[in-house]
Amino acid sequence: MDKPDRPGAEEWVPDRPTLPRLREAVQACHGCELYRDATQGVMGDGDPKAPLVLLGEQPGDREDQEGEPFVGPAGKLLDRALDDAGIDPSSVFRTNVVKHFRWSGTRGKQRIHKSPARGHVQACSPWLVAELDLVRPTGVVILGGTAGKAVYGSSFKVGESRGRAIDWPESFPVAHPPDWVLPTTHPSSVLRTDDRAAAYDELVADLKVAAERL
């Protein structure tokens, strides 16, 4: 497993953060080695008082270039799924557990995503804590296994709890824990699967559970 060669993001997180200050400060973060090959750090974006946070893995190729989360194909699918589930896409806050794009090789002009290692997730956790402490959401939708493991630990499996509300873990302390967490698959997995229509319907069904709790 690749490990960060630096101690983590703590020293780059502002003492009195705001969302704009976090977006500025993350550009200087050298908490792990991923900054070396990324275009920029990508913090969360959306309604700063959102009742719902959508938590994914890391920025992708488009996100790394544009500096915003969920602006690539998976993000567009997610917006459609939110709308179909009865959630206004403009009413949520989107972010990732890792703030720099990790990639390995290219396909044409597109850089190919590589999942972050556990050490990268751990190094980046101070940024996520700062975001959650500012937004103070009622609920968090966890998108995929990497995000789930970042919050619940290495034993987390999406399939064991997807589509149902669970408690925020005491092992991941934030100042104002959300009332509930709902795990589901990452929208990128919908794009990769053979039966995309069925996978999309399952994602929408999970998001409808979140909508009912808001």
UniProtKB/TrEMBL annotation:
Keywords: 4Fe-4S, DNA damage, DNA repair, Hydrolase, Iron, Iron-sulfur, Metal-binding, Nucleotidyltransferase, Transferase. Residues 43-208 form the Uracil-DNA glycosylase-like domain. It holds the Pfam family UDG. InterPro entries: UDG_Type-4/5 (IPR051536), Ura-DNA_glyco_family4 (IPR005273), Uracil-DNA_glycosylase-like (IPR005122), Uracil-DNA_glycosylase-like_sf (IPR036895). It comes from the Bacteria. GO terms for molecular function: 4 iron, 4 sulfur cluster binding; deaminated base DNA N-glycosylase activity; metal ion binding; nucleotidyltransferase activity. One of its GO terms (biological process) is DNA repair. Belongs to the uracil-DNA glycosylase (UDG) superfamily. Type 4 (UDGa) family. This is Type-4 uracil-DNA glycosylase. It comes from Nocardioides thalensis. The lineage of its organism: Bacteria, Bacillati, Actinomycetota, Actinomycetes, Propionibacteriales.
